[in-house]
Amino acid sequence: LRMPATGVDSCFVVKGGKAEKRIIQRGLSEGIWVEVKEGLQEGEEVVVKGQNNLSSGMEVEVKGK
Q1: Which of 7, 24, 28, 56 is the most buried (most CB within 10 A)?
Q2: How many C-beta atoms surround the C-beta of residue 26 within 10 A?
Q3: pLDDT values of the chain reduced to their tens digit, one per residue, 65 residues
């Protein structure tokens, strides 16, 4: 998850091999675990590494599935 200065939480999901930015509503957090209350659907692939270098529409290579 990214928390820019605007206070808006966002993340990237992978759709059709491309990055798609999502605005999310965060819930509880504990350590590395964060509850996402809105903005994601069950089963979507969330980018967890390298997201700082992404923008919407960029091609994404999924590894370690």
Answers
A1: 24
A2: 15
A3: 555 545 678 999 999 999 999 999 988 889 888 899 999 999 999 998 888 889 999 999 888 76
